[in-house]
Write a structure and sequence with these properties.
By secondary structure, the protein is an alpha/beta fold. It has 2 domains: 4-116 and 299-327, Quinone Oxidoreductase, Chain A, domain 1, CATH 3.90.180; 131-269, Rossmann fold. The chain is 28% helix and 27% strand. The strands form 3 sheets. Strands 3, 5, 6, 7, 8, 15 and 16 form a 7-stranded mixed β-sheet that branches. It has a 6-stranded parallel β-sheet with strand order 11-10-9-12-13-14, with helices on both faces. It has a 3-stranded antiparallel β-sheet with strand order 2-1-4. Strand 15, helix 9 and strand 16 (323-327) form a beta-alpha-beta unit. The radius of gyration is 20 Å and the shape is globular. The mean pLDDT is 95.
Length: 331
């Protein structure tokens, strides 16, 4: 078992928190009953914020970044896991309060671990990652409100990003008609390849919202927030629902109560970080049965740990399409 390993460590600098590639020792790791040899991680919007210091994601410094990881148990003081078990973690404060997946090893609490679904390779688990797992939570939430394919079109905002890409694929595979909203119309072929029936310029949802707009969509999955979310809500049909899981545009909500009162629209907040284990297991079980491996591969690019530092600002600028898998063995 190698004692030394590469990691991206976020430390305080003159310009604020920043991530940098460094070497760590197992003795540097925080407390935890299970030691995991990490094989893969991924890059989410939240990871970009943490690495660049654009938002105070890392609450304790120094902090190893990476809100996702998959790997093998190397040592365990907990009877639920033994060396060689394949496990993954999404969220639970990784990269915020506890060292995350951008390192060769992670020491973790056993209650955070999900056994890797046999349907997926480690790399595929991270091609899904928090973005895909969140997308599945959104789909499950819409289904719980009776949103079925016969109800009409489901809108997905931030469509070319990680959550959006997986959401389109999942919805299309279940027979939903999907409309994809994006600011990158050059990605139209990519989005239709994932299953979108139409692609809409995000500018249609960027201006000041009306209390009630035309009823265009049965439901929506929104990863943008702010004005976009308000515009989307105003255009949901009677009895519809919006699963809100992101705030790339902002945390404000400059809108109206009319859609909730006059059309009975449900706004469903989706938390993936601290979601209880039964929800996590249900999401991963559905992902194992529902996601199309070919479409997953089409939205995925593999990078090295060092590459994370380069792509972090790119994902914040909306320049990353689909999913990024970090292969820690890749030079």
């Amino acid at each position: 078992m190698a004692d030394k390993f590469d990691a991206i460590l976020i430390t305080k600098t003159d310009d604020g928190p920043r991530g940098a590639l460094t070497r760590l020792d197992q003795s540097d790791l925080p407390e935890g009953d299970v030691l995991v040899a990490v094989s893969h991680s991924t890059v989410n919007y939240k990871d970009g914020l943490a690495i660049t210091g654009r938002a105070p994601i890392a609450r304790k410094l120094p902090m190893v970044g990476g809100i996702d990881l998959v790997g093998k148990v190397a040592a365990s003081a907990n009877d639920a896991f033994k060396p060689g078990d394949d496990v993954l973690v999404n969220g639970y404060g990784l990269s915020e309060q506890h060292w995350g997946g951008y390192a060769g090893y992670a020491r973790l609490k056993p209650e955070w671990l999900v056994r890797k679904p046999q349907a997926f390779t480690p790399a595929q688990c991270m091609a899904i990652g928090t973005a895909g797992y969140t997308a599945m939570l959104c789909v499950l939430a819409l289904e719980s409100r009776g949103i079925t394919p016969d109800r009409g079109t489901v809108l997905v905002t931030g469509a070319a990003g990680g959550v959006g890409s997986v959401a389109i694929s999942l919805l299309a595979a279940k027979g939903y008609r999907v409309a994809a909203s994006t600011g990158r119309l050059a990605e139209t072929d990519y989005l239709t390849g994932l299953g979108a029936a139409e692609v809409i310029d995000r500018a249609e949802f960027s201006g000041p919202a009306k209390p009630l707009g035309k009823e265009r969509f049965a439901a929506a999955i929104d990863s943008v927030g702010s004005t976009t979310l308000v515009n989307v809500i105003s255009q949901i049909s009677y009895g519809g629902a919006v699963a809100a899981c992101g705030l790339a545009q902002g945390m404000d909500m400059p809108g109206f109560v009319a859609p909730f009162i006059l059309r009975g629209v449900d706004l469903l907040g989706i938390d993936s970080v601290m979601a209880p284990m039964p929800k996590r297991l249900a999401a991963w079980a559905r992902l194992a049965s529902d996601i199309d491996p070919a479409r997953l591969n089409s939205m995925t690019k593999t990078i090295s740990l060092a590459d994370v530092l380069e792509v972090a600002p790119e994902i914040l600028a909306g320049q990353v399409r689909g999913r990024l898998v970090v292969d820690l063995a890749r030079g």
